[in-house]
Specification:
Two copies of one chain form a homodimer. By secondary structure, chain A is α+β, with helices and mostly antiparallel strands. Helices cover 49% and strands 17% of the residues of chain A. Chain A binds a DNA duplex through residues 24, 26-29, 38-42, 44-45, 47-48, 58-64.
Chain lengths: 348, 348
DNA sequence: GTTTAGCACTCGACGTAACTGAGTGCTAAC
DNA sequence: GTTAGCACTCAGTTACGTCGAGTGCTAAAC
């Protein structure tokens, strides 16, 4: 069942060739391109074996072979190890990264960088706000029964939420609440704060119960409000690949991009460890398209909080180039978000 | 040079037929469809005249005729007058409009409504913030030299802007400034406030000069920050029309949508009066596509401020249906934004 | 003078058939 | 185990004929 050394070489060569040309790879082509010194007939035999094992398939009887998802999976998991560390050096990358003072701008910039350097689409999901460290809250009255709560996190993310109330608290009450929250909870994340307060409320019931509850709920975000945001840059890069040349495929791709929310939850759910992970083709079935791959990594944002970024491209993606790129950008962005001053000085 | 009554009828019939079928219209087809009681030969003669005048053209010698932009222009300007008032009644429309407490959600909802009812794409541009009436400002310190200013308008729009400072004002100073601005300027628009303050500063120079200046600049918005936002809903509706069936056309459309900023400035610039206006084909050259039309109207938002909304579709658009729709949605939205309570009660 | 019928002509769309070439599988020889 | 040779397959392209929608023009009818 396992694949021998030479078979692996041929599989790798087939995949690389297909990634480059997007056309089925024939045995003759491989003899020319690869340095294996084998005749077409030999390669044909091997390819027939690989097809039987499910790594290659033929679009039609008299065509060359095309790698299956299983092949890409194997390639990424087993054939790519040694190449990966040889990224093009962080230094060069850092030069092209121009972070802004505004965190969301910086994230968008990271997305743009990913798209630019990968030639695919760059994606960045903001960290879940509720897992970030709280810095400050401020209230603004919008009307008799409406309040605007502005939450600022230590890392510079800002969210405002409208709060509907039954009672209208006085300006003083609001200031009091804000001050209490600001002085007591700075540096903790919203999850923790919420837990503490819920506990506390149970013990000493005081006047602000309901309002406080609403404020905390608002901070957590309601299920209808997405918990973060998604930046996708360079969508049009993907259009130029031949796999989306037909109108139908293109329309499907278009619809995928429209469903921003779908894509965001997919990306958010799919990753909760360290390092780069690759999701190939139908592993992203939720996208509604089965010839897209995602190369994702978490980036650090402060001590406890993570967001996700990566590259979206055709299954036939240059994984060997993209994986180290995603890794590096994630590190770079994490570095900047966690120690803005240092990176700032370096970049400015 | 002018077109006689019967010629107009034939032109109208041709346009209507082409809008419906998207295929070149022949003389025979017209005799069947229209109620003119004329033979194909007669219609051929008239069509030949219309072609000479630039209202029709033939894709190739032995095909039917297709309306030119000039024809659509003429149709919209002169042949559509009587039909327009006969919209499908505001009542029905109002029922399908479900405004939210959040203004931006409401705008997005309006865009969705436009897309849903027109079967094209709905677009909404938010009002320029700087022309809205000021309600309140609040400051949050983000760091040693960073300040967050939150501006709230009377109509419920919220904007926050980061401000970089040389000096760090104390919490007291900030509160003082906020209170001064809030008590003195409520209800005026930012343009006016700025003018007043600039004047005042020239007379009595006081401590906050520079900071105040920065705050005002932030409120106005910098040139790099777009002055508003754009919501486009139902992009995929447009994909299904045969004029975008070819991959190339579709790609161009895609790229148009990517350039959100371009589209927004185009829409913002093109309208500054009352009522519905129509921009046909190459009149929207800035979009990079020349077979799209825009039907736009301003909506009122408070007393002095306007935003723009409308429908984006192929040149071959059902103007007779879309124009009253855009008109009505603009009114409805304006009504809601200006007197939220009244509309709210009616809808809830 | 306007309208209509008739007719020859044009030209894209569609379908069929033949050809080409890239690529395979198999068998036999090295 | 590897390679050379050969027959076979099949998508893609080209060439060609047919079809039909539609036109322009001319001459007759109203």
């Amino acid at each position: 069942m396992e694949i021998t050394g030479r078979d692996q070489d041929i599989l790798r060569a087939t995949i690389l060739c297909y990634i480059k040309t997007a056309t089925p790879v024939g045995s003759r082509t491989l003899t020319k391109i690869s340095e294996l010194g084998l005749s077409p007939a030999t390669i044909r035999n091997v390819m027939a074996d690989l097809e039987e094992l499910g790594y290659l398939e033929q679009p039609h009887a008299s065509a060359g072979r095309v790698p299956t998802e299983k092949a890409y999976r194997f390639y990424v998991d087993h054939l790519l190890g040694p190449t990966l560390s040889a990224g093009e050096g962080d230094g060069l990358l850092a030069l092209r990264f121009t972070p802004s003072e505004d965190v969301t701008d910086t994230l968008q910039e990271a997305s743009r960088l990913l798209s630019l350097l990968s030639h695919y689409a760059g994606v960045v999901v903001t960290p879940r706000f509720s897992s970030q460290r709280f810095k400050r809250v401020e209230f603004v009255r919008l009307g008799e029964r409406q309040l605007l709560a502005i939450f600022v996190s230590e890392d510079g993310f800002i969210q405002h939420r409208r709060i509907e109330m039954d009672d209208a608290p006085s300006a003083n009450q609001l200031r009091q609440i804000a001050e209490e929250l600001n002085s007591r909870f700075r540096g903790q994340d919203l999850h923790a704060i919420r837990a503490t307060l819920v506990e506390e409320m149970r013990e000493h019931k005081h006047r602000y119960d309901q309002l406080m509850q609403q404020i905390l709920d608002a901070a957590q975000g309601s299920p209808t409000q997405p918990p973060g945001d998604l930046y996708v840059e360079g969508k049009t890069n993907i259009l130029d690949f031949p796999e989306f040349a037909e109108a139908e495929k293109m329309k499907a791709l278009f619809k995928t991009f429209e469903e921003k929310y779908m894509m965001m939850t997919l990306i958010e759910k799919s990753l909760d460890g360290d390092g780069v992970r690759v999701f190939i083709g139908s592993e992203n079935a939720a996208l509604g398209v089965n010839n897209l791959s995602l190369v994702l990594a978490n980036y650090r944002c402060g001590e406890h909080s993570y967001g996700t970024l990566g590259v979206l491209g055709p299954t036939r993606m240059e994984y060997d180039r993209v994986i180290p790129l995603v890794d590096q950008v994630a590190r770079l962005l994490g570095e900047f978000l966690t120690h803005p001053a240092r990176t700032d000085r370096a970049a400015g």
